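Section: Multi-chain targets

For targets with more than one molecule, the full set of components is provided together so that the structure can be written out for the assembly as a whole rather than chain by chain. Components appear in the order listed by the source. The example entry contains two components.
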Amino acid sequence: MNNFSLAYEIKDKSFSREIYEEKVLVVSRDTKLVDSDIVSCIHTFKETDLIKRSDSQELLNKINARLLYLESVLEDDQDVELFSESKKTLNKFFNSIKHIKLPLIGADNAGYLVCEWRNEFSFKMVQIRFYSDSRLNVTCISDDFCKQTSGLMSKCISDFLITVK
Amino acid sequence: MKEIISDIVRYCKPSQIDGDVILCAAFELRKKDPAFNRPDDEKSLSVDDYNHYSNNHYSSIVTALKNRCLPPGRNGKFAKVDFEKVKQAVSAQESINLDINKNHDSHCEIHGMYGLDSKISVLFVENIEESVNVSDHC
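Its structure, encoded as tokens over all components, is:
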């Protein structure tokens, strides 16, 4: 097992087929991660104190306020429709997880919503980009490691957690 | 002899700032979007040379952006980045060399990020020397 794990916990403790079908891109020079590693990580996942427990409604209120602000400051070259579709996926994501630290939230140049956690989960940066139709992209970056996963977010995901072994 | 550009300034949109923190997304390349007349992915990062101007650096960059028909939003920020440090870090981590070319006036383009811009964007954020409000320089 290398120093990365991406873990999803599904409500019924079974694993969505979508997880297995995720496209995995490995950019790291030294580390190669394959699908089976991710599955192993899922099985070995345990919630750690790296995840700050917080009141989920408070989290959602803060996120909603932030989204309202972002919508009001989009620039002409950022697509309002993309933002709107992206927002649906982001809301679904944060409504399906129990506890996660409030990230930095913004929009990329196209208008897709982006969440960033800095120096959390033992990574310099963890970024989730939200697309339409419940699709997302997760990027985890440390000094010598970068991994991106893209795919569908299962509707039944109750916990989403990235941690380090 | 090629001019050495050590300090660069990137305009960061209001939606790419959370509190006072600039998101890495501000340093990522645009993906293609035919709806916005962008048939191809962006291959270079557009920045301005801080030292192109001897004084009033940021207000001069505001003017330069307006002249390029890219007026910066008043709620946005300018991030001044030590480009030499970014270049060294990218070279050490990725074994690739970033290149910067000056186009017109202070406008520069950074090449060599394509395909790695998510990772390199972190290095830009780590090497921000200062960030200032656009509204203070309009």
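Residues 1-54, 155-160 of chain A have pLDDT under 50 and may be disordered.
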